[in-house]
Amino acid sequence: MRPALAAPRDQWQDATMNDEIEWKVSDGLVPYPEALAWMEARAAAIAEGSARECIWLLEHPPLYSAGTSADVAELLDDRFPVFKAGRGGRYTYHGPGQRIGYLMIDLNKRGRDVRCFVHAVEGWVIATLSKLGIEARREAGRIGIWTNEPEKNGRPGAEAKIGAIGIRVRRWVSFHGFSVNISPDLSHFGGIIPCGLPDFPVTSVASMDNPATMSAFDSALYEGLAGFLAELK
């Protein structure tokens, strides 16, 4: 049975795309356990052929999630609830001001290549940030989305992580997805070693003195949806 959950709302109207993929944006803060249950139910329905693929954009209340590679030594302060996520990766933070994108995509029809899928997700987020004026990139050996903070006092800005990727695939349907820091309270990351990388800070769109809003990010992301899907075929 699908868990009770405030129904996400349609953000854009595009009949061709909506016939193929349901694009949803939720208002307010969605509790993590409810989101996880909803995702898993939807992914199972997609695998059974009884539901469309779905891209769900939302925000969570402050929490830490532990991926399958999480090391308890990297949980420094459990000031927020900690949830086992079941996705790949280590500890990460979710909270208000961070855009979460949960991707329930049927890889049976889009190529059974998880590496290609993760690469395409990274590229989609990087291209979205570029439209907002932020130069982001991949870094070899470090999954996620990286950028450089603005120069200060004539010195180059520090290399920092602005987005995280965490994917799980079951019956060749993906769930979980990405998070991008738009305007979260970055001090909340202090309770963990984010993604197990102690030598790199975390940044956000707002802390880079960029005025782009969550809505602007969503719009730019949607504009790049067709290109993202094309990468999977």
Structure characterization notes:
Helix content is 25%, strand content 29%. It contains 5 helices and 11 strands. Helix 3 (114-131) packs across helix 4 and helix 3 (114-131) packs antiparallel against helix 5 (225-231). The longest helix has 18 residues, at 114-131. It is globular, with a radius of gyration of 17 Å. 38% of the residues are buried.
Could you provide a short overview of the structure?
The chain has helices at 15-20, 32-48, 114-131, 214-223, 225-231; strands at residues 9-10, 21-29, 53-59, 63-66, 82-84, 91-94, 98-104, 136-139, 142-148, 159-170, 173-181.
In terms of topology, how is this protein built?
Blueprint: E1 9-10, H1 15-20, E2 21-29, H2 32-48, E3 53-59, E4 63-66, E5 82-84, E6 91-94, E7 98-104, H3 114-131, E8 136-139, E9 142-148, E10 159-170, E11 173-181, H4 214-223, H5 225-231
Parallel strand pairs: 2-3, 4-5
Antiparallel strand pairs: 1-2, 3-7, 4-6, 7-11, 8-9, 9-10, 10-11
Helix pairs in contact: 3-4, 3-5
Q: Compute the average pLDDT.
A: 90
Number of helices: 5
The H-and-E topology, N to C, reads as: EHEHEEEEEHEEEEHH
> How would you sum up the global shape?
globular
Going across the major beta sheet, what is the strand order? 1-2-3-7-11-10-9-8
Tally of extended strands? 11
Radius of gyration: 17 Å
**N/C terminus separation:** 32 Å
